[in-house]
Structures are given as structure tokens and as C-alpha cells.
């Protein structure tokens, strides 16, 4: 015989809500352990972890390039000085050798005497060819190598002192003024041109221009005007003015060069 328990006597247990997984409690650090921890957590000097990322960007970029800010313009003027100084020294040496040969033999014809206009011999026989009592090329042999040496130092990233740039400015300015005096003498007084001399004109003006622009940019002359940003146009206009003066002085000869005569 099966005995059943009445429903009223059955004990119903309330449903238990689902329990979320318990997060293990982190044990508190004892005061003794906290006090014994090192308090100096700042990185050592030179550690990049303590530097602002904005501050470290510029030095790292400069180090990766191997060049400091403003280094490219300085290397540009160094290249102009080196090449211009070497070319000028070679021109001065050739002219001096021709001058000495002409002194030894009045019938000697210099290598740059091509026609009645391009005639170094005509110019070498004038007083303008020996302004200081000795042949002008001697001045070039004494000055052009100095400019080339300074250009080599700049290309080697040697920081020249301010007085060196002032001296270079004075030297290139004097050379530029002397060259223009010779240009006037050749076009107006003598009436002839020296091909080697014209090469010296070009390199001397280029060295003066590059030195002046650099000194203006670096503040060696008291400021850096905005004109130095487009200084190449000024140099081109300078050369063009000299070409125009030569053509205006010898129009028939210039026309013959381009096949118009």
C-alpha cells in the first residue's frame, strides 16, 4: 500500500537567484611593505620614458638626418666657396703663366686670345692688368685658395666663428668691387674681353652672393631680410645685366656668335 504525503504538508523552498562569480579580493598591502617600496620612480637623466614625445621628436629627426637645423644652407655656401675658389685659383694660375710668357716674349700670343674682342693679350699689355705694380693674377692666387679652404671647412661641418664670416664677407666684397672695376675697364676703356677673366667674374660674384646671403640669414650682418628666400633670382638678374652690357658694347661681335651677322 502506497502512502502519499498531502500537498499541504509539502515544504516548498524559495528559488535562489543566480549568483555572479565572485572577484577575488586583492589583499591589502601591509603598511610596512608600502613604506619599504622605492619612492624614486623617476627615470634617470637621458631616459626617453620621462620626456615629452613632442620634445623628443625634433632632436631624433635631426639625429637621423645627421644634420642640424640650418646645416643645408651652410653646406650650400661651402660648396660655392670650394668650387669657386678652386676655379678662380686655376684661372689665376693660367693668366699668370701667360703674363710671364708675354713678359719674356712680347710676340707671345696667350691661349685665350681668340679674336679682336676675345683678346687676353690686349688686356695683359695695359696698366689695368697690374693695378698694384704686379700682375693681377697674383692677387687671385693669394685669395682664391683661402676661399676654397673655408668652403672645405664648411662642407666638413666645422663651425666657423663669426669673425671668420666677417673676414670672408670683407674679402668677397673687395673681390666683387675689383671685378666690376675690371668689367668697366674692359668694356669702356680697353675695348676687349678676356675669356679667363670672365670666368673669374662669374665665380667671384657667386662667392660674394652666397656669402652675403648666408651672413644675412645667420644674422652676422644684423638681420635676415625676407629677400634671401628668393636670392637666386637676384643672382640671375645680376649675371643677365653683365651679359646685356657686353652685348651692348660689342653688338656686331655678339650677333656673330649667334649667327645673326
Automatic annotation (TrEMBL):
This is Putative membrane protein. Keywords: Disulfide bond, Membrane, Oxidoreductase, Quinone, Redox-active center, Transmembrane, Transmembrane helix. InterPro entries: VKOR, VKOR_Actinobacteria, VKOR_sf. It is found in: Membrane. GO terms for molecular function: oxidoreductase activity; quinone binding. It is a multi-pass membrane protein. The chain crosses the membrane at residues 77-97, 138-156, 163-183, 189-211, 232-254. Pfam families: VKOR. GO terms for cellular component: membrane.
